[in-house]
UDP-3-O-acylglucosamine N-acyltransferase (Psychromarinibacter halotolerans), 1092 residues
Amino acid sequence: MPAHTIAQIAAALGAEAHGDTDLSVTGAAEPQSAGPDDLALAMDPKYADGLAAGQARAALLWPGADWQALGLKAAITVGRARMALSGLTRMLDAGPDLADGVHPTAIVGEGAKIGDGAAIGPFVVIGRDARIGARARIDSHASVGAGTVIGDDALLHAGVRIGAQVRIGDRFIAQPGAVVGADGFSYVTPEKSRAEAARETMAGENDAEAQAWVRIHSLGAVVLGDDIEIGANACIDAGTIRPTTIGSGTKIDNQVHVAHNCTVGRDCLFAAQVGIAGSVTIGDNVIFGGKVGVVDNIFVGNGVVAGGGTNILSNVPEGRVVMGYPAVKMDTHVEMYKALRRLPRLATEVAALKNSVSKPDVTD
Amino acid sequence: MPAHTIAQIAAALGAEAHGDTDLSVTGAAEPQSAGPDDLALAMDPKYADGLAAGQARAALLWPGADWQALGLKAAITVGRARMALSGLTRMLDAGPDLADGVHPTAIVGEGAKIGDGAAIGPFVVIGRDARIGARARIDSHASVGAGTVIGDDALLHAGVRIGAQVRIGDRFIAQPGAVVGADGFSYVTPEKSRAEAARETMAGENDAEAQAWVRIHSLGAVVLGDDIEIGANACIDAGTIRPTTIGSGTKIDNQVHVAHNCTVGRDCLFAAQVGIAGSVTIGDNVIFGGKVGVVDNIFVGNGVVAGGGTNILSNVPEGRVVMGYPAVKMDTHVEMYKALRRLPRLATEVAALKNSVSKPDVTD
Amino acid sequence: MPAHTIAQIAAALGAEAHGDTDLSVTGAAEPQSAGPDDLALAMDPKYADGLAAGQARAALLWPGADWQALGLKAAITVGRARMALSGLTRMLDAGPDLADGVHPTAIVGEGAKIGDGAAIGPFVVIGRDARIGARARIDSHASVGAGTVIGDDALLHAGVRIGAQVRIGDRFIAQPGAVVGADGFSYVTPEKSRAEAARETMAGENDAEAQAWVRIHSLGAVVLGDDIEIGANACIDAGTIRPTTIGSGTKIDNQVHVAHNCTVGRDCLFAAQVGIAGSVTIGDNVIFGGKVGVVDNIFVGNGVVAGGGTNILSNVPEGRVVMGYPAVKMDTHVEMYKALRRLPRLATEVAALKNSVSKPDVTD
């Protein structure tokens, strides 16, 4: 990492600098393992002992901290610790080691346009007529399909796969192995499928008759807004006729699956291994914990929060906080779960009651 | 997309064409967003208003629709809408933009054979003695291991990984990042492992003793039938001694995991994020919703249907429809779940009963 | 596979050889499908009929087996069958077909060092200043980031992605598509996020207010011990400031996710699709079945065993065996579940009791 002075870092964070603000640091570290050229991260008084144990000469500290008493030469004091962490890590993140321009091994298709200041890595393939925005960084082995448009300041890590005819806004980030625009998983049977029948009847058996699956191809591609991040090995499938769409500011973690024809709103946050089936509509500002599942063809309203492991099997209205399998309101879930924990005891109590109630009949 | 006339499309769908059947379309669209060169998809009367709002001159319509009253110049009327969608999207899907022949950057191993009419993309690696069937399309960065055989008309998207000694039938489709033939996850401990002990005792504690894991290598590869599709970033692991096998016609969605030594039947459908542990036997025509899990070394009979999120922890007989964690028959699940919803109230009722029953004791 | 004599195999397994120990085999097979050059695997008397049906001349047999009566020319008798399978499959596994040395298409960055006897495949990219140990085998399309260090005897399959500044010990195995060192999924909101609020209140509704996510970058990379295996398309994310760490001997299956800042101990075993959220501490010898989820910022003690599908939502002490959503002790889970199965009947009983209890009130 390049060196930064305490003054530069404080300015970038909009925070107050103290002491020898010309002092330079080349990295950040936890207080106890910080070396003399690291900025120690000690945004809470509980880290004071760690500072004493480490070798940092400068630290990020809580508001009002007595940096001199902590034996430091310089300090920056900040409010919300994680906001400061955001600014600091952004400054120190060098990103992938990519030379400017198009690497001689990369293949750029006929009619494709690469924006100014872009860095295209080894073995990258950019399809025919694709457009890549200014200052894009595309790491080795990534591929971008024909006719796809990606906005400015994109960062595609190694091995990212973007399909054909995809539209992506500015400041897109895709982690290694992310796949945008694979074909949707869409099959039809000539007659009603046994899956459709099972949903209708909710019976415990079905006729188990053989059925062959006929493929519906995906022509609709994907449209992503601005400021979207897609995690490692996550998949956003193409729509059938219209595109699968995701609104600006939405962040998607590793191994998430968003199926064909979904419409996802703005500023959502999906943790790892979330799976959203086909043709789901999700509002803005929705937060899904890890492993949340959503069944196909439903809607999830604005601002819904679902805890980790929740399986959403029916529509969820705006603002609801849900949990469980199937999903219910969080407080209902807690109440049901507490009752379930006590259920073995309840069964014993009912057995005792039956006994005591039936006895009088005998003795009467 | 290339232009097609209404007559050509109707012939391909085996459907009836009306009006100016020489009219050409170059794409398909939802009625309200269709341009003058799109075929509007309006297979239900509820889309009539959409047609009026859009600019389509031709549409796919429901049986008996009055296409002239809808202001169209031409129309095709169809029965089961999704079957028509299947035929239409197949016609219009151009597939990946790959030049015929072997791209100069691709590497074809010694003794490998590429079928007639195949298109092998940039940076593809085909292993020694592999055989690729006629008309295969293999997109950039895919790799095929030594000795592997893939049938005719395969479509491997970018970055697909096929291991060594794999046998695959005709018309195989693999989405980006799919992995067929990785090593199975198979470990043994010199003495009984704590996982085995926990299963036997079902106790809530174990001795937590250290154990080292000794690897069992995978020699058995994978055998896939005809007409199989594997989704993006899905994994089908190699068997230990005999191959992991999947029957013809089975369709597998994104991020599905099929472990070593599994035997999966014909015409199954596994939605995204399904996970099947080692040495499971699955019959024909089995349908798994998203995120279904199956524990190792069990069997699932023909025609079983499991709802999204189900965890199957024991054998499931033919024709059963299951749900829940652990899986039970669908109707049992519904009954149990309804009772659980009412459980907090039931607990209150039991408390009241205890009160009313105990009172007589006091007053007696 | 190269030929081995029965004597050689027995010596490698530390087992007893019988009969014509100079006989050569070139593969292993199940008894009924074994050819004359295969070693049949029949480590249990139940396979005796299979031996008769197949053509094997030599077999791996149970202790004390009468190999002559089974019609064999040679045999090896072994104790714990799966331990023998481990040794045998290791002998017969040729691994990926890679020529020694660096393939002419591979790119090795400035200052990078490749160990003696390494085989680096086509289209591999090794970053600036990376160090790869002796005898490493790195298959096609893999990439290793700048400054990363990988120990001796590594096996990276096709398309593996190792990020920058990662430290990996000896004998590392990574299956196709595995990603080590992608950026962690870490976001902050200027004010308290609605996810934090939901956890605190456990209420069923929230204000659904819009919030924008500010990124925290990952500077901490990943540190892996010796003898670690990572499955296909699995992801181990980089830490924020300090590294995400995994102890020696831990084995991780396909599509597992280990988030940023996690600390995982030695000799753990995580089955497919396990997901571990950020900043979790996991002890040594922990065993997770498939699809286990672990919520962020908790600890899981040494030797914990969690059954497939378990969602761990709070700390788990050492030695515990857990199951369920949320996770409870295995025996508690069994008891709760049995009670739940009987719950519909219990509800009927309570209704009957209410009737019988209320009747006296009427007749009094």
About this structure: Chain C touches chain B through 84 residues (CB under 8 Å). Chain C has a mean pLDDT of 94. The helical segments of chain C are 6-13, 48-53, 81-92, 194-201, 330-341, 343-363. Residues 96 and 182 of chain C are 25 Å apart (CA to CA).
